[in-house]
Write a structure and sequence with these properties.
By secondary structure, the chain is mostly helical. It folds into two domains: 83 residues, Glutaredoxin (3-Layer(aba) Sandwich), CATH 3.40.30; 148 residues, Glutathione S-transferase Yfyf (Class Pi), Chain A, domain 2 (Up-down Bundle). It is built from nine helices and four strands, in the order E-H-E-H-E-E-H-H-H-H-H-H-H. The strands form two sheets. It has a two-stranded parallel ribbon. This is Glutathione S-transferase UstS-like C-terminal domain-containing protein. It comes from Cutaneotrichosporon spelunceum. It holds the Pfam family GST_C_7.
Length: 255
């Protein structure tokens, strides 16, 4: 086991600020914590990722999360999970207790189905919270350069009714997770998604979106109680806390 903390490059709002606001770096943070590997965030803005970080690493299209492994750079949360599991995983503590395909299933569900409802709240917050150059990159990469799409989301999130409607859509997606956890409970399995006693990459894949939602702030409305911690999703709420505790993740949030 390494004693030197792994540097995990993440998405920050301001240069020199090592606070993550992106869902994907949270996934890797949970994976590292689940394996007992010490780590630390190194924050990069979107502008820094697309300019200096890409130039310094000589890796075209590199994104975060990213970790330097010897002479090479590994990025994207699933390849990182595979790397970390191969280096630090054991038979007793693995990121893939039910196999890689099981974990990939939840990764895909989180990044496609769940994310589709999170992004209308996340994207406009990121746009408003960043410096202009990074905001411009966000519009280019996530909105195809169409500023009107972003403006529409910014205007929509000024309405509490829209935020509640979108939170309800997120809760509707999370019913899938609630049912999975209930099935595990009924069968006497562990409290995590794969039914084991420690978080796996399947848990990290979903928890990453929870960690990011906690940072999002529209008119002071807290999204945690409206989504993952809603009273209609008791097992999801308990699971979110259990993953964070087991992985030892300290939630430093943008204010």
């Amino acid at each position: 086991m390494t004693t030197d903390p792994v540097t995990l490059y993440c998405l920050s709002l301001l240069p020199g600020k090592d606070v993550n606001v992106g869902p994907y770096p949270w996934k890797t943070a949970i994976d590292l914590g689940s394996l007992g590997v010490p780590w630390r965030f190194k924050g990069l803005t979107i502008e820094e990722i697309r300019t200096t970080f890409e130039a310094n690493t000589a890796v075209k299209g590199i994104t975060v999360p990213a970790i330097q492994d010897g002479e090479k750079w590994v990025f994207d949360s699933f390849p990182l999970a595979q790397l970390l599991n191969s280096k630090y995983g054991t038979e007793e503590r693995t990121l893939f207790p039910a196999g890689e395909e099981f974990a990939r299933l939840f990764d895909t569900w989180a990044d496609r189905d769940l994310a589709a409802e999170v992004i209308p709240l996340l994207a406009p917050w990121l746009f408003k919270a960043q410096q202009p150059a990074s905001a411009a990159w966000l519009v280019k990469e996530k909105m195809g350069g169409d500023q009107s799409k972003m403006d529409g989301l910014v205007n929509a999130t000024s309405d509490p009714a829209f935020i509640e409607k979108q939170a309800a859509a997120i809760r509707a997606k999370l019913i899938t997770l609630e049912r999975t956890l209930q099935a595990n409970k009924d069968e006497g399995k562990g409290q995590f998604i794969a039914g084991n006693d420690h978080p796996s990459h399947a848990d990290a894949a979903v928890w990453g979106w929870y960690g990011t939602l906690l940072a999002v702030n529209h008119m002071g409305i807290k999204l945690g109680p409206l989504t993952f911690k809603h009273e209609t999703l008791p097992l999801v709420g308990a699971w979110a806390d259990a993953v964070q505790k087991a992985a030892g993740v300290d939630l430093q949030l943008e204010q």
